[in-house]
Design goal:
WH-like_DNA-bd_sf, about 10% helix, about 675 residues, DNA-binding, Sig_transdc_resp-reg_C-effctor, 5 helices, mainly beta, 5-stranded antiparallel β-sheet, Winged helix-turn-helix domain-containing protein
């Protein structure tokens, strides 16, 4: 559920049984911004969809023609506790799991699984009442952060979150000028893939669009100290990738441009205090590997400042301290971890600050320059004091807060909401009916794996804060299986043949979850694998392993730790029920079959490189064939290679995620853009 949808819901709850006019919604939800009727209609439509309501036969929200909306569901006020403490503050060194060194170690769950009775209307109504109760207790809901002080034990540390932008669509990359009067940010409509750059004059609440002479996407703005110049990244136009410097007080002056790596579509920019140089992130050599450079704006020469020697994305984000003498740097480690470093621009000294254990988008500074601010694992902002290493939570709202940014005065802005929302739909054979919405929540539900008999669905969700492994039964009951204490990238789920075990990867480390015993286990020798799948029985897993620069498919005995090579030059593979191995290669088109020691090509039409994008069920190989107009469900018969395609009657279907049961029940992942807003963070 988008943050603005949640805000409208709270507004209707607070005015239950009263007509809430569009003017009231604009005043209370959009804080008086300029809002179109279409924007309000879209949010009301999303809210109705979330609670399973209908405009024609409403059970929750009734439209009063020419007047507004009224919440007609029964609302009960629950007794509020005297104080609701915030979750305990994590330490910077806290890790997700303590892994024993024993063979086939087990991770015992310390709490019972969390159960959910599905998303019936009765359950949703109870959820609305719970939201009302939480609102009235003054804890962590969005509206409370706007309108009153937090009553938690850490109230003095919690800062207010106030919306700044009000456009429909996605607003990201906030950059506040040092005088606090101008906000630059990137914006795009939900139906558009093109990013534009907009400037908000905060005192006048007026907007202007940045329109340089070149065409392309504009992102990652940065103001000069005096606010006279704006630097940004422009890519996708005729000129390729460029750093652009605009003279904001001389709009007729042609922008200055500097070339960047042709494949660069993300960066991080900071102005040197002199105003004659930029610090920025760019690729050099490998398109996805980033380093920090200093660009001299007078002669155009650039100097490389960092040389990370780690696997991952390299140094991908920077933030200059208010004093201009040091820089916080985000370094990607093994793709799923972020190291925050401190780079002294005077001495050239590097110092490790903390490894957070999950990906970050940005980092910011406080005004004194003695603490950094970044997103915590559960989607709220934390302040880390550099000298004491004390970590303090500073936001507590229902919406995710990320991408913090600060100006030289220490004024904080951030992004509210998530760029994408994901939910799971089920499409049953013979596919004559529309797919049915099957798993959805206020956060992301993804990486599905349906049991072979179709009676259970494993998936990943961050609805409880951190990504966790969940299970949904056919009767609608949903159970949280894991209680991970730190951010983890969970992926590549699949059921064993008897549906008793779930295999997957956690930060590229293979795991097996025993459903009956509620036990998470980590097989030996499988610490860095991709495209995990079950072997020929429940004692073996197969996965892609990079060996001496060559991808291989190997089989692993999860009890003894023994491993064996199955096929060279292969990247993703799965066994069918007859024991034949199907696989794809990175540099050759098609899907291949290994059976009785002989390799033959099944088809050259499809080449899946992601294990979750295709599946074997029955005698068929299934995948989503991406098409610009409409995606297609493709089925390849493994006996004769015959291909059957069926248009999927839905938009936003992800071709990277698919699961199919033996009876032909198809689980589709619906991935769509979600609205985000720029917010200010202040006491």
């Amino acid at each position: 559920m988008e943050s603005r949808v949640m805000q409208v819901l709270l507004c209707l709850i607070q005015h239950a049984d009263q007509v809430v006019s569009r003017e009231m919604l604009i005043d209370e939800v959009w804080r008086g911004g300029t809002v179109s009727d279409n924007a309000i209609n879209r949010i009301i439509g999303l809210l109705r969809q979330s609670v399973g309501d209908s405009a024609k036969s409403p059970l929750f929200i009734r439209t009063v023609p020419k007047k507004g909306y009224v919440l007609i569901a029964e609302v009960a006020k629950l007794a509020a506790p005297s104080a609701v403490p915030l979750p305990p503050e994590p330490t910077p060194s806290e890790s997700a799991l303590i892994v024993p060194s024993k063979p086939f170690p087990a991770y015992e769950l310390t709490q019972p699984p969390v159960k959910s009775g599905g998303f019936s209307r009765r359950y949703l109504a109870s959820g609305l009442l719970l939201l009302l109760a939480l609102t009235l207790t003054g804890t962590w809901l969005w509206q409370q952060a706007f309108d009153r002080e937090t009553t938690s034990e850490s109230a003095s540390d919690i800062m207010r979150v106030n919306p700044i932008t009000f456009f429909e669509g996605q607003e990201i990359d906030p950059a506040l000028s040092n005088d606090g009067r101008k906000l630059a940010f990137a914006h795009r409509e939900l139906a558009d893939n093109h990013w534009r750059m907009r400037i908000l004059s905060i005192p006048e609440q007026s907007y202007t669009d940045v329109e340089p002479t070149m065409l392309g996407n504009m992102r990652y703005p940065a103001w000069s100290d005096d606010g006279k110049f704006l630097a940004l990244l422009n890519w996708g136009g005729d000129a390729g990738c460029q750093l652009v410097v605009l003279a904001m007080q001389q709009p007729t002056l042609a922008p200055r441009t500097f070339a960047c790596h042709a494949a660069t579509q993300s960066t991080s920019i900071a102005w040197a205090p002199s105003g004659n140089a930029l610090y920025y992130v760019d690729a050099d050599g490998e398109a996805s590997y980033k380093r920090i450079f200093r660009l001299n704006l007078i002669d155009g020469r650039r100097e490389q400042l960092s040389q990370p020697h780690v696997s991952g994305q390299g140094d991908y984000a920077i933030a200059l301290a208010p004093q201009g003498n040091k820089m916080a740097v985000l370094r990607s480690i093994d793709w799923f971890n972020t190291q925050i470093l401190l780079f002294d621009l005077v001495t050239g000294e590097w110092r490790n600050i903390v490894e957070v254990g999950y990906p970050l988008r940005s980092v910011a500074w406080n005004a004194a320059g003695d603490a950094i601010i970044y997103r915590g694992e559960a989607g709220q902002l934390y302040r880390l004091t550099l000298q004491s290493q004390q970590l303090t939570r500073i936001t507590s709202v229902v919406s995710e807060i990320n991408s913090p940014a600060s100006n030289a005065a220490g004024e904080l802005t951030a992004v509210s909401g998530e760029l994408f929302e994901e939910e799971l739909w089920q499409w049953s054979a013979p596919y004559s009916q529309q797919p049915q919405r099957w798993v959805y929540s206020s956060r992301r539900d993804y990486s599905p794996a349906i049991a072979h008999d179709g009676n259970a669905l494993a998936f990943v969700s961050n609805r409880s804060g951190l990504p966790q492994l969940w299970l949904k039964r056919q009767n609608g009951q949903e159970i949280q299986l894991t209680q991970l204490t730190a951010f983890s990238h969970i992926n590549e789920l699949s059921f064993s043949a008897d549906n008793q075990l779930i295999a997957g990867t956690l930060n590229r480390r293979a795991f097996v979850f025993n459903i009956a015993q509620q036990q998470l286990q980590f097989p030996e020798q499988m610490n860095n694998v991709q495209n995990l799948a079950w072997g020929t029985d429940a004692q073996h897993l197969i996965a892609a392993v990079l060996t001496d620069g060559l991808w291989q498919i190997k089989s692993f005995d999860i009890v003894t730790g023994a491993q064996s090579l199955l096929v060279n030059d292969a990247f993703t593979a799965k066994y069918d029920r007859h024991g034949a191995l199907y696989f794809s290669r990175l540099h050759k088109p098609g899907i291949w079959r290994l059976q009785h020691g002989a390799v033959a090509q099944l088809t050259d039409r499809f080449t899946p490189h992601i294990g979750g994008a295709w599946q074997l069920a029955g005698d068929d190989l299934w995948l989503i064939e991406p098409r610009q107009a409409q995606p297609q469900l493709a089925r390849v018969n493994t006996l004769d290679g015959q291909v059957t395609v069926l248009p999927v009657p839905m938009a936003n279907v992800s071709y990277r995620s698919l699961s199919v049961s033996d009876n032909g029940a198809v689980i589709l992942s619906m991935l769509a853009k979600s609205s985000t807003d720029i917010v200010s963070i202040s006491h």
